[in-house]
Every structure is written in C-alpha cells, then in structure tokens.
User: What shape does this take?
Amino acid sequence: MEVVLVRHGQTEWSRTGRHTGRTDLPLTAEGERQARAVGEALRGREFALVVSSPLQRALQTAKLAGFEPALRDDLAEWDYGEYDGLTTPEIREQIPDWTVWRYGSVGGESVEQLAARADRVIEELLPVEGDVLVFSHGHFLRVLTARWLGLAAADGRLFALDSGTLSTLGYERDQRVIRSWNVPVPG
Assistant: This one.
C-alpha cells in the first residue's frame, strides 16, 4: 500500500507567502497547470480510495487532475485564525521568533489539534486494501507525514512541501517510511 499525497496547486496567497488556512481561495492559472500536470503524472495509476480536503484549492486540483474524490473535513488546512492571510514577517512584527509550529495561531488550531485530525486520517487509510490518493494542503500534509512516521506533529516543520507536488508514503517491510517527497511534476 502506498499513500500518494498531492499538495494543491498554486493560489495567489501561496505564491506570495501568505498563510492560507480556511480562506477558500481558487487556483491561479499556474495552479491549474500544476493540477493538470499532476493528472498526467498519475495517469493509469489505480487507487482504492481518493480523498480531498473540501477547500476549493484542493478539490479543484483533484478535479483538474481527473479525479472525483470523497471529501474529508479532516484534510482541511491548519486553521490559522487571526494569522490567516498574513505572512511570517508580518506576524513576526508582533512575535519576533514566531513559527506556527511553536506558537500555533491566535484564534486558530494548535499543532496538537492538527495532529488529532492527521491521526484520524491515518486510521481511515490503514485498512484500505490498495493505494490511496490524498489531495490536501502544505502544513496539514507535513503533519500527516510526521504522524505517519510516528513523529511528533511539530516535526512536520522538517518537511518542506511546494505547491503542485507529489509525495508518497509507504512501507519498507513493516516500517512506515517516506517513499518520495516534494516531487515536482513536469508540464
């Protein structure tokens, strides 16, 4: 069994470094191109389960890639609360050493709350017989990966993840591993 992760294509806020949590933005033209390229890269591959965040940037990526996913609220991006739409330098004007991994966000989710959502997703995926395809968001997929590996959720900070990329989680013998990470798709 492999779990193929797709970070949604580019949005205006991801392009400009703004934290995009629950603000429901569409893809840019480049994001649409990335989504179609993901579809080409996955063409002919069989999946026992295809799931997506309900936020339009993930769902639009899935559909442009040629998939009709089941929606899972647990796959939504980190709720950044009052920091939604802000860049890290803007937040650091108030908290100089701020990272979402250390401080979370005012009025949003903690890293522990995100971990609980990621753990629920993993529990759903483990019994699936066959490969799984997941369309979601940068910070959420990084936490999901950390939890897949048995790491603390905040260790997701170690896994840089670009828009419109493919990553694969799987096994080496009985050990959960990363099979590939942050792979750009040509197109």
